[in-house]
Specification:
Length: 133
């Protein structure tokens, strides 16, 4: 992912909240790699929302930097996902976060269990603590 001028603040570094946008894109691509897309899930009355996040900034990114953004699943619940995410410039860690995602009904924004096929896909990809069964 490339840093554009629209991503930076007046000091020429990436505005802090934009790291969360980069991480959102990485989670969207992770979901896509499992064969799912947000709009398809929304049509089936499922939606993902950010429940909470803890972010640590280590070093700034600047305009035209090429960044790598990762999204790894750390915990899988029936209606929640905990992602560990990093933003790097080459080998240098710039920002890291733990982001908890909740699955909710698209029509009422109430907690809703992940669709069974998607839960199984996440479970198959899972690389952290044991999934809640």
């Amino acid at each position: 992912m490339r840093v554009y001028i629209e991503d930076t603040d007046a000091g020429g570094i990436v505005y802090y909240v934009n790291y969360l946008k980069f991480m959102e894109r990485a989670r969207t691509e992770y979901l896509r790699s499992l064969g799912y897309q947000h709009y398809g899930l929304s049509e089936e009355n499922y939606q993902f929302v950010v429940h909470s996040c803890q972010v640590r900034y280590h070093s700034p990114a600047r305009i035209d930097d090429a960044l790598g953004v990762s999204a790894g699943l750390r915990h899988l619940g029936k209606a929640t996902l905990l992602f560990a995410q990093q933003v790097r410039r080459g080998d240098q860690l710039l920002c890291e976060a733990e982001i908890k995602i909740a699955c909710v009904s698209a029509d009422g924004i109430r907690p809703k269990a992940l669709p069974a096929p998607l839960y199984q896909r996440f479970k198959a990809e899972y690389r952290g603590e044991r999934a809640n069964d």
